[in-house]
Structures are given as C-alpha cells and as structure tokens.
Design brief:
The protein is an alpha+beta fold. It contains four helices and eleven strands; from the N terminus they run E-E-E-H-H-E-E-H-H-E-E-E-E-E-E. A six-stranded antiparallel beta sheet has the order 6-11-7-8-9-10.
C-alpha cells in the first residue's frame, strides 16, 4: 500500500453550510413554529429542508384560567338549581298557605253559622218560656178575686183608667212589633192598656183572644177585648170603649183610632175585667 494512500474517514461529513429560518404564528390558541433550514454537506448539494412544528400554548396561567372558568360555570349551574328549588318551595308554600286560609275561613263560617243557630234556638226557647210564664200569670190574675172585678163589685175606676189610657194613645203610629210608648201594634196596645190596671196579658193576639171569658157580641161591656178571626187564632184585637165603639191600633195607614163596630166588625169578644 502506498504511503500516500487516502484512508476514507468514517465520520459523517460536516455540513458545510446551514441556514435556518424560524417563523411563528398563532392559530386557535396553538403556536405554530416553522423552521426552514438549508445545509449543504461537504462535497454534495442538499435540498433545503423545511420543518414545521405545532406546539400547544397551554401554559400554567391558561390552565388555571380555564379551571376557574369551569368552576365558575359549575357554580352558576349549582346556583341556578338552588334558586329554582327555592322558587318551587316558595310557590308550594304560597299554595299551601292559600289552601290553609280557605279551610280556616270555611271552618270559621261553619262555626259562626252554628253559633247563630244555637243563639236563635236559645232565644226561641226563652220567648216560649216567657210566653208560658205570662200565660200562667194571666190565669192567676183571672182566678184571683179582685175588688175591681165584676164578680166582686167592679169599680168604674179600673175601666175608666183602661179607657183613659187607650184614648191617650189615639193618633200614635201603628208599627208591627212595636211596644210603645210612641208606637204600638194591635196586641201590644191591648197588653199595655191592661197593664195599667194590674193585669198582665200575653203579648200576641192569639192567646189574648182566649185570655178571659167568652162573651157574645150582644152583651159587650166597656173594657172587653174584641178579636177578629177565631178564638185562639185571632189575627187582630182591640178594646170595646162603649157606645158601640172600639179603640185599637188598626194598621200603618190609620194608626191608633176609635171607630164604631161597623167600621170593622169583630167576630168575638172575651171579658177580663
């Protein structure tokens, strides 16, 4: 072998020239790096090499921001669900309160109605007791002898007082249910007149028509109670004042008047004095 022989080297040939260009761009949050390099190995020409690399730009700050955004979105969803639940609970509570109030109102109305019915029943019972008591008092008065009664020599004083009271009421108003002193109905006038001579009569015309002894219309005496209708179910009463006349609270048009019997012919009479 020649001492001048050339032993080929095993090392890779060095590139004789190298040039690189770096281009950067951002697309959709991704940094795009374009590296273009040209190198020429010794003794041979090489085509320029172009390299493109895409690198994500997710840094720690961006990751933290994205995490916070996700947490915020999740918190907003939870807040929305919580508000929706609260709204539903509020509506349900309002509906329950409305129903409870309606039930309470119905219960109060029922209790009020029952209380009114109870009071009406008690008042009716009290009126019935008072009526029975008045009737018993009247019967005792009728059965007890009196110096003013006809059977024991009645004095004209009682009759005069009775008729005097009635004539003092002439001209006053007739008002159904009134009991004086400015207005009367037919039975309250008769009751008030007899009370002036110490006799308590029932309040209404029906029992007044049977409060004494039945007498014929041909045998009337001053002070007899006249009635219209049947005994026990009379619808009107007055008092015989003598000389074919009577005094009574007739109606709302005439008021209390003294009229002849033929003005409104009574059907019967009872004697109390």
């Amino acid at each position: 072998m020649s001492p001048n022989a050339v032993i080929p080297s095993h090392r890779k040939p060095r590139r004789s020239a190298s040039s690189r260009a770096l281009r950067a761009g951002v697309t959709g949050g991704i940094i795009t790096l374009a590296v273009t390099g040209a190198s020429m190995p010794a003794g041979a020409a090489e085509k320029p090499v172009s390299e493109t690399q895409e690198m994500p730009t997710i840094t720690s700050a961006l990751a933290t921001s994205l995490a916070k955004s996700a947490d915020t979105a999740q918190q907003m969803a939870l807040d929305y669900e919580r508000q929706a639940a609260q709204d539903t609970a509020t509506v349900q509570a309002a509906e329950t309160a409305t129903k409870d109030k309606a039930d309470a109102d119905r219960e109060a109305a029922a209790e009020k109605k029952a209380e009114e019915a109870r009071k009406a029943k008690e008042e009716k019972a009290a009126q019935e007791r008072a009526s029975r008591s008045s009737e018993r008092t009247s019967l005792r008065s009728l059965s007890a002898p009196s110096a003013d009664s006809p059977t024991s020599g009645a004095s004209t004083g009682s009759t005069s007082s009775l008729i005097g009271f009635l004539r003092a009421q002439i001209g006053k108003s007739y008002v159904l249910g009134a009991s004086g002193p400015s207005a009367y109905d037919c039975s309250s006038l008769v009751q008030a007149a007899y009370r002036t001579v110490g006799i308590d009569l029932p309040r209404t015309s029906q029992p007044q028509s049977t409060a004494g002894t039945q007498v014929s219309m041909d045998n009337l005496q001053v002070g007899d109670i006249l009635y219209w209708g049947s005994a026990g179910s009379a619808y009107h009463v007055a008092v015989y004042s003598g000389n074919g006349n009577f005094i009574g609270a007739q109606n709302s048009s005439t008021g209390i008047v003294e009229k002849p019997l033929n003005y409104s012919q009574p059907t019967g009479a009872v004697r109390v004095l």
